[in-house]
From TrEMBL:
PANTHER family, per the entry: TONSOKU-LIKE PROTEIN
Name of the protein in its database record: CARMIL C-terminal domain-containing protein
Keyword Kinase found: no
Family annotation (InterPro entries): Leu-rich_rpt, LRR_dom_sf, MMS22L-TONSL_complex_comp
Entry annotated with the keyword Repeat: yes
GO aspect biological process, one term: double-strand break repair via homologous recombination
Length: 146
């Protein structure tokens, strides 16, 4: 019999530990982008890694006028999760469509300080905007008010 394991189990049964994470250190944005590409089995775009690296410490991420499609934007959006310093996210003049709104929203809800989101000149219709603004969608809170 392993007394250490049983003692630990007994302590855990008696006490409940409550904790709250105040902050944590994230890997650099370019590293998170590389990991997202790897997890999606996509080739990492070295120029995108450089763009993300140069903008990581600022309050603004500008990825406008790059003609990025959903496949190219998905690892970027995943890398941007919990980028809490970001106040301005510019994704204008890309090829972002309604089918990318769930991925976009998953990132946006983790950016509590975001005050400006530029999605102009994309392929987003009223249906895509509805996905972003609909608070009745299960398991998420809309970061936008209609």
């Amino acid at each position: 019999m392993d007394w250490g394991t049983n003692a630990l189990r007994d302590v855990c049964d008696v006490f409940q530990v409550l904790a709250e994470v105040q902050s944590w250190d994230l890997p650099p944005l370019a590293d998170r982008y590389k990991r997202a590409c790897d997890s999606l089995a996509l080739a990492e775009d070295s120029s995108m890694s450089k763009i993300l690296q140069l903008q990581e410490n600022g309050s603004s991420i500008d990825l406008s006028n790059l003609s990025l499609n959903k496949e190219q934007l998905t690892p970027i959006l995943r890398a941007l999760k919990f980028q809490t310093a970001t106040r301005r996210l510019c994704l204008s003049a890309n090829r972002l469509g309604d089918d990318a709104m769930d991925e976009l929203l998953a990132s946006l809800v983790t950016m509590p300080n975001l005050t400006l989101l530029d999605l102009s000149s994309n392929r987003i219709t009223h249906e895509g905007l509805r996905k972003l603004c609909d608070p009745s969608t299960p398991s998420r809170d809309s970061p936008f008010q209609v």
